[in-house]
Amino acid sequence: MTATEPGERRSARKLGVVAFQGLQLAFIALVIAHICLGWGYHVLWNCLLLALAYVVVTVAHRWGGAPDSPRQAREPLEVAPPVTGRWSALNSPADRTPSHGIHAHGQTYAIDILAEPEPGSRPAFRWLWPLARRPQAFPAFGAPILAVADATVVRACDGRRDHLSRNSLPGLLYLMLIEGSVREMSGVRQILGNHVILDLGNGTYAAYAHLQRGSLTVREGDRVRAGQVLARCGNSGNSSEPHLHFQLMDGPDPDAARGIPFTWHGIGVPANGEIFEAHPAAVTRP
After folding, report:
1. What region, left, alpha or beta, does residue 182 occupy, with left being phi > 0 and alpha being psi -120 to 50 degrees?
2. Residues 6+ apart with CB under 8 A from 273
3. For residues 253 and 12, what is the distance between their CA atoms, to the nearest angstrom?
C-alpha cells in the first residue's frame, strides 16, 4: 500500500478533528430538540451519533503520529530548555510515545514539566480534599517561559482564564470526563489555553501551552532570540495544575501537525518523575 503523502495525511487528521466536533454538536442539538420539541424517536438513537464521534476522534488521534519507516524518522532536535531552575517531568516521551497517549495536536513527543524549586514545595495530589487550589499555590505559576531558539512567533493566543487546580481525585475525574470532552469539542485553542507557537525554521515549530493570562510578551510576527521571555507559566486550558506543556511539531496548526522528537541542551529528555535543573544555555540552531 502506498504511503499517504504528508500533506494529505495532515488534511485527513484535520478533517477527523472537525468531523468529531461536528458530530458532538449534532448529538447535543438532537438531545435538546428531543427534550424541547418532543420528537417521537427514542433518544438512545442519539448515542449512535455520539459513538460515531468517538470512533472518528479515536482514529484521528491515534493515526499518523509515528513515521512510516525508519528512513523517515527524524533525529531529536536539540534546543535550549524553555525554563530555568528546578523542575520535574511528567508525561515524558523518554518513557513512551505517544507521551500523552495520543498523536493528536502534534503531541507525540510532548512533555509536561512542573516547577519543584525545593522538595515538597509543590502541593501534592489529594484523593478527596481539598478539591481544588488556586493556581498561586503552585510554584510553577508565574515562572518565566523562554524561547528555545531564535524564531518567529506564528501564533500568540491570550485571554483564557487561569482556573483552579484539578489535582484531587474528584477534580481529575471532572477534568477527564467532562471538562476535557467539552474542550475537545470546542477546539484546540480551548485545550492549549493561552499559548505561543514559534517557527524555528526548517519545518519545525515549538508550541508552549497553558500560559498565564495577560503574561504574553510577544505577538504574531515578532522575531525572538533564544532565551527570551515569551510569557509566564499558567493554568489555562486543559490543565490539572500550573505547568508547561512543550512540544515540537512539523507544522503551525496542532490539529494537522505531526510531533517531532526533541532534546534539551545540557539536559536531554527527562523521564517521568525526574528532577532536573535548567540553566540558560546556547542552542544548536535548527
Report:
1. alpha
2. 88, 89, 90
3. 13
Mean pLDDT of all residues belonging to the chain? 81
Instruction: Name the maximum alpha-carbon separation found in the chain.
Output: 67
Q: Where are the domains of the chain?
A: 6-64, 75-278
Superfamily, domain 75-278: Glucose Permease (Domain IIA) (2.70.70.10)
Cell readout for 181 is: 470532552
Contact 143, 83 (CB under 8 A): yes
Higher confidence at residue 184 or residue 239?
239
Give the β-pairing of 262-264 and 77-79.
parallel
- The three cell numbers of residue 221 are 510576527
Cβ atoms 173, 252 nearer than 8 A: no
C-alpha cell at 79: 534546543
Q: Region 181-193: what's the mean pLDDT?
A: 77
* Cβ atoms of residues 165 and 240 within 8 Å: yes
pTM of the model: 0.79
